[in-house]
Amino acid sequence: MPSQALSAPVHVLKRRARILSRARSIPLHAALDEIAAQEGYRAWSLLAARAAHPATPAEIRARLKPGELLLIGARPMQGKTAFALRLAAEAMKAGNRAFLFSLEYAARDVPDTFRRLGEEPAQFGDRLRVDCSDDIAAPHIVDTLASAGSGDLAVIDYLQLLDRKRDAPLLEEQVRALRDFARTRGVTTAFLSQIDRGYDPTTKPMPDLSDVRLSNPLDLALFDRAVFLQGGKVKFG
């Protein structure tokens, strides 16, 4: 099945199919299949299924709107950091900038991490900024993103680190502040998130918002989208 992003959102493709159906006096299902073929799919049903459940970072980034907040949740060793860095790579390939805020990495280690993902950091030029300072919290992130604009991507590794300092604002206040900034400036912001240790993949194949690990209250409705990873599978919604 094709992995490239669609040339337009699904509702736009449906509109094209309706126009095509009327213009050529063919059934709508035939017009939908023809539009799907133009996108590289054998049938509309396959296109619709893939659009509903995009699997790759490139596809998911194509579905994100500037300024949205994305939660990326997984247990350790399930690939959430790699997934976020691939999102960053896709943003930079499109000419945008990517900002990585992390206390899990040392800045000097990030280039080799990209190389292990098959991406040569040199191709990104000055579009990548890595911040591994101990000051990471919403005020510092907003200040660092002062020059960021629509289409740029910020990755926060990880959500729970914002809650580590007693003198920092409450976690929900920080996320609200980051959401307001993201929407004003059009900066897509991805938060990596821990999943509660009680999550059991043998009884629940994929974690969801109810499994996000939180030490303090946070309205998870602040996030526009979420990606969960488990056992090599990706759930996007």
CATH first level of the largest domain = Alpha Beta
Q: Count every helix, treating DSSP H or I runs of 4 or more residues as helices.
A: 8
Distance between the termini: 20 Å
- Element pattern in H and E: HHHHEHEHEHEHEEE
Largest sheet: 7 strands, mixed
Unreliable stretches (pLDDT < 50, length at least 5) are none
Q: Averaged pLDDT, please?
A: 91
The secondary structure category is: alpha/beta
| Main sheet: strand order | 3-2-4-5-1-6-7
Number of strands: 7
Q: Globular, elongated, flat, extended or rod-shaped: what is the shape?
A: globular
Give your account of this protein's structure.
The protein folds into two domains: 43 residues, no CATH class; 180 residues, 3-Layer(aba) Sandwich (Rossmann fold), CATH 3.40.50.300. By secondary structure, the protein is α/β, with parallel strands linked by helices. Helix content is 36%, strand content 15%. The chain is globular. It has a seven-stranded mixed sheet.
